[in-house]
């Protein structure tokens, strides 16, 4: 079944019958865009052919998001021209763009959390029969689209109850069901596991054969070599180069992106496992998502947690920090049993949790960096005395942390919302440096972060580990986990499927434990 067939339930939509590579779908010439105090784009050229994946690559703040928002009709350019299939065009809204066959999946989701999956997929283009909502057709079309994508979601599930990764799947399904001629995917695999990403890549190949043009933003270089035909690199709002994906190395891509060379993406960490710092003993959660899990993390090592979406890996980190209620089992920190873990109690014991969604759980976006970094430590003598905030010492301490993390720009009074994604993540990490921390729980620490910022974050983790911190790394980015962890646990259906150590920690071994044994045997 094709993507067009899966979306036929929704009525007429733009299509590209017979178009293939070599047919120009889109061209942007000398595009510029300014915001108050910021030059987001300056004279950028970009084009898209039918049947190709054209990757936009660059650091956070390079102008990628501004460019795709212009293409998606969110706002117009200040200067420059845009043609669609050779015809000059000026988009006046996202709805206008969708009518012309331009669909986008942004990092910021456009879902209604109180509606079901199927209602979100058909929102604004509900299937009707004789003026009455045809719920059976909507349900059938939703099932067909989810089966096409191999996304295992309940069509009737309320979107607000889904994980971020599952919501990402809904966004992708919604865009595909609109039957676009141009599809924009902004970090679509940021919350997906390896298997789910592979399903998406297979779909992209099928869409290319149908003649779709796909604009793809990613910070994962391995994805570029997997699916891209061409790569356009932006830096500081300007076009650096457009190159054939098969003709450029990983090192060269990074050099084009950041304007300088790097020695390696992943640092070599000198693991020196010492005292036991974290232990879960037959841990089960009241939610039923984790069953009988026992793990250990020592000082001076990085321990990974891998698994598919819904496997329970994130819930373990949240339970240790006191964010998920424990049904049975125990948590120990430094050999001390913790009967009822709570975030405040864990902070006081030197445990910091970095959540996967920094905007929802990690930051107060409209407040300055200073307040965000010191928020969890205001009761410490460094920041207050007799209940009175010591603003000068707070400022000195936070500026030193920001300098250590290479926050750019180095302005701790600036609103967090005005920083790039990579720098926002540094603010979240900086909160853990305002007190003495012995255990770091990193849950998807580089989601939506560019390669340059990743290098800095990985270097920060290396420094923490070699200074004696215990690090639990929960990650859906398999290369990240394989290169940084000294050993890893693989989760499956809420249980530990395997513990892999040293040379046994390979991609093949991790993936082999992601699925049911019957599936593997088949």
Structural description of this entry:
The structure is a single chain. The strands form six sheets. Strands 6-9-10-3-11-12 form a six-stranded mixed sheet, with helices on both faces. Strands 18-21-22-15-23-24 form a six-stranded mixed sheet, with helices on both faces. It has a four-stranded antiparallel sheet with strand order 2-1-4-5, covered by helices on one side. The chain contains 19 helices and 24 strands. The model is unreliable at 1-19 and 518-522 (pLDDT under 50). It is of the alpha/beta class and 522 residues long. The radius of gyration is 24 Å and the shape is globular. The protein has three domains: 3-23 and 52-77 and 93-257, Rossmann fold (3-Layer(aba) Sandwich), CATH 3.40.50; 272-350 and 437-448 and 468-522, 3-Layer(aba) Sandwich (Rossmann fold); 362-435, no CATH class. Helix content is 33%, strand content 25%. The two termini are 24 Å apart.
List keywords for this structure.
522 residues, alpha/beta, Rossmann fold, six-stranded mixed sheet, globular, disordered N terminus, disordered C terminus
Question: What secondary-structure arrangement, pairings included, does this model have?
Answer:
Elements: H1 3-7, E1 24-35, E2 38-49, E3 53-57, H2 64-71, E4 79-84, E5 87-88, H3 94-99, E6 102-105, H4 117-121, E7 128-129, E8 132-133, H5 135-149, H6 164-177, E9 182-186, H7 194-209, E10 213-217, H8 221-227, E11 230-235, E12 238-244, H9 250-258, E13 276-285, E14 293-298, E15 301-306, H10 313-321, E16 326-333, E17 336-338, H11 343-348, E18 351-354, H12 358-362, H13 369-374, E19 384-385, E20 388-389, H14 391-404, H15 421-431, E21 439-443, H16 451-466, E22 470-474, H17 478-484, E23 487-492, E24 495-501, H18 507-512, H19 517-521
Parallel strand pairs: 3-10, 3-11, 6-9, 9-10, 15-22, 15-23, 18-21, 21-22
Antiparallel strand pairs: 1-2, 1-4, 4-5, 7-8, 11-12, 13-14, 13-16, 16-17, 19-20, 23-24
């Amino acid at each position: 079944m094709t993507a067009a067939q899966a979306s036929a339930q929704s009525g007429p939509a733009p299509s590209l019958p017979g178009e293939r590579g070599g047919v120009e779908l889109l061209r942007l010439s000398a595009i510029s865009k300014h915001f108050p105090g910021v030059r987001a784009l300056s004279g950028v050229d970009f084009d898209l052919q039918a049947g190709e994946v054209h990757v936009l690559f660059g650091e956070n703040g390079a102008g990628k998001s501004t460019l795709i928002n212009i293409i998606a009709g969110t706002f117009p350019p200040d200067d420059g021209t845009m043609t669609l299939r050779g015809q000059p065009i000026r988009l006046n809204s996202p709805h206008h763009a969708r009518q012309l066959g331009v669909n986008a999946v942004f990092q910021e989701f456009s879902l209604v959390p109180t509606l079901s999956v199927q209602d979100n997929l058909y929102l604004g283009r509900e299937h009707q029969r004789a003026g009455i909502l045809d719920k059976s057709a909507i349900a059938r079309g939703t099932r067909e689209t989810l089966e096409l994508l191999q996304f295992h979601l309940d069509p009737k599930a309320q979107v607000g109850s889904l994980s971020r990764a599952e919501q990402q799947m809904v966004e992708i399904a919604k865009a595909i069901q609109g039957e676009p001629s141009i599809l924009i995917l902004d970090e679509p695999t940021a919350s997906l596991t390896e298997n789910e990403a592979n399903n998406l890549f297979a779909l992209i190949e099928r869409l290319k054969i149908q003649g779709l043009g796909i604009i793809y933003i990613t910070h994962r270089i391995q994805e570029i070599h997997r699916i891209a035909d061409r790569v356009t690199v932006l830096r500081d709002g300007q076009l650096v180069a457009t190159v054939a994906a098969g003709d450029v190395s990983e090192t060269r891509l990074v050099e084009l992106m950041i304007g300088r060379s790097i020695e390696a993406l992943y640092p070599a960490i000198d693991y020196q496992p010492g005292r036991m710092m974290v232990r879960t003993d037959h841990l089960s959660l009241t939610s039923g998502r984790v069953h009988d899990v026992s793990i250990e993390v020592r000082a001076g090592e990085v321990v990974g947690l891998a698994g598919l979406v819904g496997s329970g890996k994130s819930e373990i980190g949240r339970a240790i920090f006191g964010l998920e209620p424990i049904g049975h089992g125990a948590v120990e920190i430094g050999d001390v049993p913790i009967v009822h873990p709570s975030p405040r109690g864990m902070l006081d014991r030197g445990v910091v949790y970095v959540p996967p969604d920094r905007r929802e759980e990690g930051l107060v976006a409209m407040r300055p960096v200073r307040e965000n970094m010191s928020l969890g430590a205001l009761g410490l003598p460094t920041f207050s005395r007799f209940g009175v905030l010591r603003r000068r010492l707070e400022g000195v301490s936070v500026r030193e942390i920001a300098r250590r993390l290479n926050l750019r720009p180095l302005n701790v009074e600036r609103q967090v919302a005005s920083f790039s994604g990579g720098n926002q993540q540094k603010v979240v990490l900086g909160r853990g440096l305002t007190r003495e921390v012995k255990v770091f729980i990193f849950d998807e620490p580089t989601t939506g972060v560019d390669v340059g910022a990743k290098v800095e974050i990985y270097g920060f983790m290396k420094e923490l580990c070699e200074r004696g911190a215990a690090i639990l790394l929960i990650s859906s980015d398999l290369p990240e986990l394989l290169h940084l962890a000294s050993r890893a646990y693989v989760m499956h259906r809420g249980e530990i499927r395997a513990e892999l150590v040293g040379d046994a920690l390979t991609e093949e071994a991790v993936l082999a434990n992601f699925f049911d044994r019957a599936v593997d045997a088949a």
